[in-house]
Automatic annotation (TrEMBL):
<keyword id="KW-0238">DNA-binding</keyword>
<keyword id="KW-0456">Lyase</keyword>
<keyword id="KW-0227">DNA damage</keyword>
<keyword id="KW-0645">Protease</keyword>
<dbReference type="GO" id="GO:0106300">
    <property type="term" value="P:protein-DNA covalent cross-linking repair"/>
</dbReference>
<keyword id="KW-0378">Hydrolase</keyword>
<dbReference type="GO" id="GO:0016829">
    <property type="term" value="F:lyase activity"/>
</dbReference>
<comment type="similarity">
    <text>Belongs to the SOS response-associated peptidase family.</text>
</comment>
<dbReference type="InterPro" id="IPR036590">
    <property type="entry name" value="SRAP-like"/>
</dbReference>
<dbReference type="Pfam" id="PF02586">
    <property type="entry name" value="SRAP"/>
</dbReference>
<keyword id="KW-0190">Covalent protein-DNA linkage</keyword>
<dbReference type="GO" id="GO:0003697">
    <property type="term" value="F:single-stranded DNA binding"/>
</dbReference>
<protein>
    <recommendedName>
        <fullName>Abasic site processing protein</fullName>
    </recommendedName>
</protein>
<dbReference type="GO" id="GO:0006508">
    <property type="term" value="P:proteolysis"/>
</dbReference>
<dbReference type="GO" id="GO:0008233">
    <property type="term" value="F:peptidase activity"/>
</dbReference>
<dbReference type="InterPro" id="IPR003738">
    <property type="entry name" value="SRAP"/>
</dbReference>
Length: 97
């Protein structure tokens, strides 16, 4: 709420250290909260930071993630569409010599 009592609608992406195959792509990844933890996460009476951290602990859910290369078009906000998540085949790495 603002000082004038207006509701502020916002969103945040909470990240954690990458695990599994994702760690080869980037050091951070979004926290994935299983549906059986949603109610506890949204409970306003849970305010202890350690209790909230426990809800975000790694689970078997991360083992089911697919990791594959996509077009570098995802790096530009000018692009939007389902083709951005289509897998691509990478060529052989190039060398300087």
């Amino acid at each position: 709420m603002t000082p004038k009592g207006q509701l502020i609608v916002s969103v945040a992406i909470i990240t954690c250290d990458s695990v599994g195959r994702l760690a080869t792509v980037h050091s951070r990844m979004p926290v994935i909260l299983p549906s059986n933890r949603w109610e506890s996460w949204m409970d306003p009476s849970i305010t202890d930071a350690d209790d909230l951290r426990k809800l975000m602990e790694y689970s078997d859910l991360y083992d089911g993630l697919s990791v594959y290369a996509v077009s570098n078009s995802v790096n530009s906000v000018a692009h939007d569409g389902p083709e951005l998540i289509e897998p691509i085949t990478l060529g052989e790495p190039q060398t300087l010599f």
